[in-house]
Specification:
Length: 219
Amino acid sequence: MRESSSRWVAATVLSVAVLATTTLADTWMPPGSKSYLSRDQQFRFEVFPRVLSSAADYWHDYDRGPHKRGQMAGKQDVCTGQLAKRASDGSYAVVWKRELVNDVSPVTALVTADGAHVVTFDNWHSKGYGADAVVIYGLEGRLVASLGLADFLSKEQLAGLPRSVSSILWGGEHHFDETEQHLVLQVVAGKHDDDKPRTEWLSVVISLTDGRVQTLAGK
């Protein structure tokens, strides 16, 4: 019995060790309100997340009937975004406000210098998953496009991306091009030419006007 137990323990430890090499651990704090400024600070985009009782409740709360996962009773039950423009006195006046596509909250966002476009990236607690990994909003908050990774990556590229327990770790420092008419996504390259511990990047160019992919990763 002791020998069998020892073998079972050893096998379990080995399995955990193998899993640890392929899936990274991660920790998510409950989301809070965030602000993002355009490069000249003339526009400010604020995100107000859906209010959760806790990150743990969201993780374990899969079946609550009509209720949303982890929702705190009596608190804001949708994620909203608000774009504001800076006045001469330094204050900000609201340009538009709307419910965002994201369930809880996007992870990051960008704002063009003219305030014509806002782009949000990923979902809280699940980077890289869903059809809203990249969302583009236009004038008056109009939804221009909502994209999942499969919309601009091949199956092979998608399969090669690193992962954690909750997320696909696909993105780097995304930015606009010089004209701010296009979004340039920085995507983790799934394969490396050697075994050096470094990150290689591919670029994907997307039109802010209509959300069309102009340049695919690696092309």
